[in-house]
Amino acid sequence: MDFSNCKILIVGDVMLDKYYFGKVERISPEAPVPIVNIVREESRLGGASNVANNISSLGGQAILCGAVGYDFFGKEIERMAHRKGIRTEFIKTEQPTITKARIIGGRQQIVRLDYEQHLEIPEKTKEEFKVQLEKLIHEIPTLVISDYGKGMVSEEFCTFLITVAKQHEVKVIVDPKGQNWAKYTGADLITPNVKELGDIIGHPVDNDDHAVETSAKEIIRQYGLEAILVTRSEKGMSLVNKQETIHIPTHSQEVFDVSGAGDTVVAALALALTAGNGIKESIRIANIAAGIVVQKIGTATLTAEELEKAM
Ligand SMILES: Nc1ncnc2c1ncn2[C@@H]1O[C@H](COP(=O)(O)OP(=O)(O)OP(=O)(O)O)[C@@H](O)[C@H]1O
Ligand SMILES: [Mg+2]
Fold first, then answer.
1. Could you tell me the distance, in angstroms and rounded to a whole number, from the CA of residue 222 to the centre of ligand 2?
2. Residue 252, pLDDT score
3. Residue 289's pLDDT is what?
4. CATH code for position 80
5. Does residue 253 have a pLDDT over 90?
6. Is 71 a catalytic residue?
């Protein structure tokens, strides 16, 4: 599990998760709402930056590209990423850094504040960014596109990324979102969860082997894809390509916190493939990695040592 030579470029929706923990002792005199006296704050890298965080934590080299605002949260993401050894290439936008801030009083979440506006990147900035990305793609064997549907991975930009990646024989893994998968055409592997598979097929898909396989095959045909890895929560994951389907059960017996497991899957998959493992071995590694993070409360990352031990 030595991933130190694996350099991965992650492009996508960079986000910040904030948690404000406090005590509720009285009701506000201003309005009928509780007053939360904050005692502790926590920040976590979210979305594409959580994928980068997982890659870095597993010992790989992560280069993270995305958009942040000219605000405190953007600086915080940058600072946290650098502290974790992640290289960042961000564009700055007029829109706020996508942030989800939870206010937790006692044991209960009281409200969530979302900072989120549709991304509008000026043409000139976009063109400069593309030039920069073209240079970066020369340096790397694998590109991860982490689409959280927040606007960074537009059709035009995604098509550009995959086209350039293909020109340089860079492997492309996509964590998809939304109803336009034409933009992912040319990707080597797409990793939807069951809900995302349902979103693209146009109706909910049952989380059983047969339904997942049938839907994935239809999408492969429809979009001319190579392979789909469907992540299926407590049912593990299924790899579907033109030749075969492999279902693998989840690795974990105890589950505490499933959020972010999908990011761990793409991160571990990208590293395992880049390190030279075949697809079957790589999904086995990714599945074990996800099985470890769901057993943890809070952190959604793991180290190469933890992975090696579990294997
Ligand atoms: N409840 C669970 N029990 C056991 N394993 C789980 C559970 N939830 C997730 N996993 C593991 O994590 C992997 C990815 O989880 P999931 O399919 O929920 O992805 P996801 O919906 O993209 O996750 P998220 O968006 O929360 O990061 C699964 O394939 C499985 O290996
Ligand atoms: Mg996901």
1. 22
2. 77
3. 96
4. 3.40.1190.20
5. no
6. no
* Lowest pLDDT segment from 10-19, 64-73, 265-274, 291-300: 291-300
- Where in the sequence is the domain holding 266, given as residue range(s)? 7-15+45-98+117-310
Which ligand 1 atom minimizes the distance to the CA of 175?
Answer: 22
E strands in 117-215? 142-146, 171-175, 189-190
Instruction: For residue 234, tell me if it sits in a domain.
Output: yes
Does the CB atom of residue 193 touch ligand 1 within 6 A? yes
**What is the rounded CA–CA span in Å between residue 115 and residue 16?**
10
Domain total of the chain: 1
Pick the residue whose CA is nearest to atom 23 on ligand 1: 262
Cβ(146) – ligand 1 distance below 6 Å: no
Burial level of 198, CB count in 10 A (0-12/13-18/19+)? middle
- Give domain status of residue 138, yes or no: yes
Distance (Å, whole) CA 39 – CA 31: 22
**Measured in angstroms, how far is the CA atom of residue 131 from the centroid of ligand 1?**
35
Q: What is the pTM of this model?
A: 0.96
Per-residue pLDDT reduced to its tens digit, 124-136: 999 999 999 999 9
